[in-house]
Amino acid sequence: MTPLSSSSSQSYVKDPRNDDVDVYVNGEFFKRDEAKVSIFDAGFVLGDGVWEGIRLIKGKLLAIDEHIDRLYEGANSIQLDIGYSKSELVEEIWKCLRHNDMHDGVHIRMMISRGRKSTPNQDPRFIVGGATLVVVSEWKQPNPALKETGMKLMTSTIRCSTPDVFDLRLNSHSRLNFIQALLQAINMGADEALMLDSRGFVASCNSTNFFIFRGDELWTSDGLTCFNGITRKKVIKLWHDAGMIVHEKPFTLSEVYNADEAFVTGTLGGVTPVASIDGRAIGGGKPGARTSRINDIYQAYIAG
């Protein structure tokens, strides 16, 4: 099997079983080529909605309570009525998994928009129905090659937004600024973009959270302008519980360039090493022992 987009932290190994997976749309199931929403849907018109990425590992939905809490907090922030209680929504996920006979090694993308509008405009008062709920479940294994080689990052000129502009704790469908940052990185021969905040401190990558090691100390941003990452929180806790030092604080590119190791975290990829940033090797220019150790600790956690 060949990894798709093999240099991305979101890359995965192609699985032919996904060709026959049915997609859940508002309580019904459709072949993936037949699943659709209205062109008047608020998610299509404006990116008006929230989403979650969740993994199914050995029959268990990993960190499901944290994912559902984050989803509902985001929906509440934009006054989006999901139409289900938390437990009812989790049952809809299980309904999709049972329908497709899935038990392990699955990534679920749950997408909720405000719903269909009477006309394509910005005003949420033009909604004519309830929320749109889509669940896409696929067999996905992270690309193992990245664990061996590490990623190349480039610092983007596009900054992560402050909460008064757009709060990144909201897992919104709208991702255009991050796509622009990623395109900059790709055009410069990198795999993903490293992004700064409005102060010039390191914030996150375009789709993942960013960490460095300085000695045995684990550093990550102060969290003011980075994604509210569930894997990020877990890695911080796991390293702390192992008796090691964790700093959540502002730090600069100069401190990154002089780091011993670097990695990113995300739901699908877990812990993904970083080999270089802006053409400069980090540490030895390949995944290091500390990153390998935190990855081992994280893998033990998800194995349960």
UniProtKB/TrEMBL annotation:
Its cofactor is pyridoxal 5'-phosphate. InterPro entries: Aminotrans_IV, Aminotransferase-like, BCAT-like_C, BCAT-like_N, Class-IV_PLP-Dep_Aminotrnsfr. One of its GO terms (molecular function) is branched-chain-amino-acid transaminase activity. Pfam families: Aminotran_4. Its EC number is 2.6.1.42. One of its GO terms (biological process) is amino acid biosynthetic process. It catalyses: L-valine + 2-oxoglutarate = 3-methyl-2-oxobutanoate + L-glutamate; L-leucine + 2-oxoglutarate = 4-methyl-2-oxopentanoate + L-glutamate; L-isoleucine + 2-oxoglutarate = (S)-3-methyl-2-oxopentanoate + L-glutamate. Pathway: Amino-acid biosynthesis; L-isoleucine biosynthesis; L-isoleucine from 2-oxobutanoate: step 4/4; Amino-acid biosynthesis; L-leucine biosynthesis; L-leucine from 3-methyl-2-oxobutanoate: step 4/4; Amino-acid biosynthesis; L-valine biosynthesis; L-valine from pyruvate: step 4/4. Keywords: Amino-acid biosynthesis, Aminotransferase, Branched-chain amino acid biosynthesis, Pyridoxal phosphate, Transferase. Acts on leucine, isoleucine and valine. PANTHER family: AMINO-ACID AMINOTRANSFERASE, AMINODEOXYCHORISMATE LYASE. Belongs to the class-IV pyridoxal-phosphate-dependent aminotransferase family. This is Probable branched-chain-amino-acid aminotransferase. It comes from Paracoccus liaowanqingii. The lineage of its organism: Bacteria, Pseudomonadati, Pseudomonadota, Alphaproteobacteria, Rhodobacterales.
